[in-house]
Design a protein that fits this description.
Chain lengths: 425, 425
């Protein structure tokens, strides 16, 4: 695994100031791709000539001037096929870029190619490997974007999250990741799965980089000043903490201790028992909405869908409309209560995943700790911890209040600064 | 204006039973289009050869076998350009159909062409005229779909609604229209405006036809049996009833009287004062989300946007993040209270619009009575009244409980049966 020497913020400033060019940056990243892509398999569509052509024409302007970006193959792109890792869409070529891809280009980003996703961003996995250990999964579904980030193939990458698709790969690959509040970022040109949860998110090399992308993809986005004072943080294990491996739990608890030692307040937050049903309600809604979103593929191309996607249709078929409505009503009832529980805190902390990246490429492990908060549309962020060289990356999840994405980013900056020594390098 | 002899349900049954063919139906509708389209201007893209080719290849199967459908030019289509009534997208040709267009085709529908929309389904109007009076607007933004329905150019049509875009044209053109609960129908391939409200909806010639389309576009959709008993209906004027013209108010009150005479219960429902802010909150959210949804067009093609769309950006620019969040929080707080108010009723009744179609093509009148309920994502339906030949159509709005779309359709069937004599022919 290569550690990038330059983050997106630094790269774009250097391009704008004339200290380097998009073309020079492109060559640096293309070299890495050439060297390691055969092992990693982050890309499903990659064209070095296209990258060089884009770089050669670059005007050296924009918030992301010359910054190489990887795009999950669930976003439409006019310059590359968009295939959703489905044989139904082999060589499928959209006529235009997804909204966020256009915004990235308008900000000067350099699109490096399309990265592997699971089939329709659901469960069926592709060939991508985890740069930290090639025998292990990078997580799913934003597998190629995360693995490519960890391998240094680009400085930023786009992903999406419905259950755990952005933060799980971040946790397994040791990346900063940000999933904004539901509804803030346009989904135009993104293949829908479960619209109650579907959200565009991104990977960066620092909280500062995550913030930079937010400014590009959320027009009008502003981060509030939080006065320099002890942060008020919650630490919430949820009802599924028994899924957390002891060494992961230890790493997270050590991070909490570090924050306390630095003078910040971290309170344990216990959730009322009613919240134990959120995990199942998320899955039920995901199944029902997923089956509706992929109805046209199911009706005409059933034999080309993977077993895990077909299983989703089977579960949806045995779920009644009333059960789905009841699940949604329960989440709607719980949302203001959760909001009240989060109110005293600048951010909530927890595990992103209960384990490090498991061995094997076909199964990527549960997403419970991620989908719990995603069920309520809250902004989520992964801080990549690496307690020691012998240990694989562990993800510290940070959760913000709904639509207070700026506060979450600002709080994460302070948290990352305190944990600096323990952060994935 | 031509009254269609056959509705979608009858047409498709006739095709499936071999009593007619898609080709014969196509010719009937093409004749009408040829005769009246120069006056109406419902279509932005129309190709009789394409329609004939599709009809000739038809397999006479499907819930919508051989049924001619108009598609608002805000839905992507592979066989026709998709231009959003914006010069930025002149001749823009998507590579694939929007999800719902695919579902219509898979159900056997015959796509007749793309119908005029306002620019990006916002306010800037096109050339379409109201078939009931060519000096008047058909309403916006689903103008071409509604006018084409009223002129008999197709048997069904797709529209979308963010504020009043589906029900206003239905009210002005005398059409049955159905806007499902937020989130039930896939928006894949539909240009977003304000995702908190954006919903696909459709026009039909009867409640039965509206229901037929729901079965196609909402996989798994089922309508509950409601035992034959007096309906429990609410009649809700909202705080803006002073906008209702006296003759429109009279037509609606007469409809209520007819329902009561038929033995149904209609209670006046008064909303608490807090609901008076919903209209402004809807507009504020619409502005802010619209500005984000169209950010890429604004950044690169500002000079090609209409004054009304630019005004939206101006309002958004002077609205703070906190104001938008506060508006959303107020709606979220009111939603369960409104739900409680609606709970005793099979459906709520009200005005769709306070006036009949106004004279002129540039301004289409307010959407307050429609967006009030749409702000909460509730299912909405228009029953077209025509109290007398001298009077233009008036829209009776019916509103259902959230995600109880089946109950609303069933209730509307009974209501339409009672009002039969007063319904637009």
């Amino acid at each position: 695994m290569i550690r990038l020497p330059l983050d997106a913020t630094t790269l774009s400033e250097a391009v704008v100031n004339g200290e380097t060019t998009a073309a020079i940056i492109a060559e640096t990243f293309l070299e890495r791709i050439q060297a390691q892509e055969p092992d990693i398999q982050a890309f499903v569509s990659f064209d070095a000539r296209q990258v060089r052509a884009d770089a050669a024409q670059h005007n050296s302007r924009g918030l992301l001037a010359g910054v190489p970006v990887g795009i999950k193959d669930i976003f439409d792109t006019a310059a590359y096929p968009t295939q959703f890792f489905s044989p139904i869409y082999t060589d499928h070529q959209p006529s235009r870029d997804a909204h966020v891809v256009t915004l990235l280009r308008q900000a000067g980003a350099l699109i490096m190619g399309k990265t592997h996703t699971t089939e329709f961003a659901y469960m069926h996995t592709g060939p991508t490997r985890n740069p930290h250990d090639l025998t292990r999964t990078p997580g799913s579904s934003s597998a190629g974007s995360a693995a490519g980030m960890a391998a240094g193939f680009f400085a930023l990458a786009l992903g999406t999250q419905t259950a755990g698709s952005l933060l799980k790969p971040a946790s397994y690959c040791g990346l900063f990741a940000f999933k904004p509040s539901l509804g803030l970022v346009s989904l135009e040109g993104v293949k829908p799965l479960a619209p109650s949860f579907d959200t565009v998110g991104w990977y960066g090399q620092s909280v500062r980089d995550l913030h930079l992308v937010a400014r590009v993809l959320i027009p009008g986005f502003a981060v509030p000043d939080i006065e320099r004072r002890p942060l008020q943080l919650g630490f919430c294990r949820t009802s599924r903490w028994d899924q957390v491996d002891p060494d992961v739990a230890l790493a997270l608890e050590q991070a909490v201790d570090q924050l306390r030692s630095a003078g910040h307040h971290v309170s344990e937050v216990r959730l009322p028992d009613e919240f134990a049903g959120v995990f199942d309600d998320h899955q039920l809604i995901n199944d029902c909405e997923g089956a509706r979103s992929l109805a046209k593929e199911f009706q005409q191309h059933r034999t080309q869908l993977s077993p895990s996607t077909l299983a989703m249709f089977e579960r949806a078929a045995t779920t009644t409309w009333q059960q789905e409505s009841a699940a949604k009503a329960r989440l709607a009832d719980l949302a203001p209560r959760l909001s009240e529980l989060c109110q005293p805190f600048d951010a909530m902390l927890g595990a992103s995943c209960g384990m490090v990246a498991p061995v094997g490429l076909e199964s990527t492990g549960p997403s419970d700790f991620i989908k719990f908060w995603g069920a309520f549309g809250l902004p989520q962020l992964n801080i990549p911890l690496r307690p020691g060289q012998a240990m694989l990356p562990v993800g510290l999840q940070m959760i913000g209040r709904f639509r207070e994405d700026g506060r979450l980013l600002r709080t994460a900056e302070y948290v990352a600064a305190v944990l600096q020594g323990a952060i994935q390098e």
